[in-house]
């Protein structure tokens, strides 16, 4: 019988979500004329800063917020 993988902690799950969001927005960040690019760059910075904030992991950054 193989061991059941442990459920990720809230922090691990939040980091996985953040990493996925950064990956999804990579192309937009690298394309100078991408629509809404400035908001996306601000969002990506919020994603990178999020683990060091008091709202981590309970309140996720939002695009355009």
Task: Describe this structure in a few short sentences.
The chain is mainly alpha-helical and 65 residues long. It is 51% helix and 0% strand.
Written account of the structure:
- Helix content is about 50%, strand content about 0%.
- The protein has three helices and no strands.
- The protein is elongated, with a radius of gyration of 15 Å.
- About 5% of the residues are buried.
Nearest-integer average pLDDT: 94
Major sheet, described briefly? none
Molecular shape: elongated
Give the quaternary arrangement of the chains.
Answer: single chain
Total DSSP helices:
3
Index terms:
65 residues; 3 helices; single chain; elongated; mainly alpha
Secondary structure blueprint with pairings:
Blueprint: H1 10-24, H2 26-30, H3 37-49
